[in-house]
TrEMBL record:
One of its GO terms (biological process) is L-valine import across plasma membrane. SUPFAM superfamilies: P-loop containing nucleoside triphosphate hydrolases. The keyword Transmembrane helix does not apply. It comes from Paenarthrobacter ureafaciens. Residues 8-241 form the ABC transporter domain. This is ABC transporter ATP-binding protein. One of its GO terms (molecular function) is ATP binding. It comes from the Bacteria. Pfam families: ABC_tran. Keywords: ATP-binding, Nucleotide-binding, Plasmid, Transport. One of its GO terms (cellular component) is plasma membrane. InterPro entries: AAA+_ATPase, ABC_AA/LPS_Transport, ABC_transporter-like_ATP-bd, P-loop_NTPase.
Length: 250
């Protein structure tokens, strides 16, 4: 029995798209400050799981609790306000707005801060995300790495209790991945619980203290990253291909 209450609790989450099962009575807990990585084959339902946590998609069944509060009936913007922060696989910043304005919108609308507090928090968040020097640039002009940083910064600007990161390392070079890992590690080290879906396995293993593999709507493995990486089911379902893909990129 855990003496620490989970910050995020999922109970009996099920979802089908037609005949495709993307969540099969899925239950799991995330502890405060924990960093959970999720791997799994393409189409396994990883992003769909995030959408069901963030309220962008309704599960067929199941309960989502954040810090002891049942969010099940709440819509996405209410969940953001409650403390669920998420990034999207394809960053879609407001291209014509500046980097600062992008983050300010999230601090105001997502985080619910008043004008002065939102200005202060947006500035702090930009620095935290390593974007201070880009504050006045148009978001549409950023490099891919800076766009990824902005995606993380927008989620952080809502002052989340749990941060959901969806393939933020995709498309980056190895040195860029290392920079992003440093950012995410520092955010986690400050105490923020994270769940990170990622195909770039070495980015995950550099960051997370727990790894799960999602396939067929179930967590087929879940535990210490080093154990999960050598799990025969994970290797057969996913990891062989992922390692090959990483080697191809090298
Ligand atoms: N709104 C939707 N309507 C119907 N099917 C959907 C919808 N969203 C996702 N799917 C399907 O559900 C399955 C799971 O998709 P999801 O994007 O969650 O997978 P994933 O594990 O994140 O994959 P990847 O690693 O490729 O990003 C896929 O077969 C996808 O085509």
């Amino acid at each position: 029995m855990s003496v620490v209450d989970p910050i995020l609790r999922l109970r009996g989450i099920s979802k089908k798209f037609g005949e495709i099962v993307v969540a099969a009575d899925l239950s799991t807990d995330l502890l405060p400050g924990q960093a959970l990585g999720i791997v799994g084959p393409n189409g396994a339902g990883k992003s769909t799981l995030f959408s069901m946590i963030s309220g962008d998609l309704r599960p067929d069944t199941g309960v989502v609790e954040l810090d002891g509060v049942d969010l099940t009936g709440r819509r996405a913007h209410e969940r953001t306000r409650a403390g669920i922060g998420r990034t999207f696989q394809i960053p879609r910043p407001f291209e014509k707005m500046t980097v600062f304005e992008n983050v300010l919108v999230f601090a105001t609308v997502g985080g619910g801060l008043g004008r002065d507090a939102a200005f202060r928090f947006a500035a702090e968040t930009l620095d935290r995300a390593g974007l201070g020097a880009h504050a006045n640039e148009a978001a549409g002009a950023l490099s891919l790495l800076a766009r990824k940083r902005l995606e993380v910064a927008r989620a952080l600007a809502t002052d989340p209790k749990v941060l959901l990161l969806d393939e933020v390392a995709g498309g980056l070079t190895d040195p860029e991945v290392a920079e992003l890992v440093e950012l995410i590690r520092s955010v986690n080290a400050e105490g923020l619980a994270i769940i990170w879906i990622e195909h770039v396995v070495h980015a995950l293993t550099a960051t997370v203290d727990r790894l799960a593999c999602l396939a067929g709507g179930r967590m087929v493995a879940d535990g210490n990253p080093q154990d999960v990486l050598v799990d025969p089911i994970v290797r057969e379902l996913y990891l062989g291909q992922a390692v090959m893909a990483e080697e191809d990129l090298a």
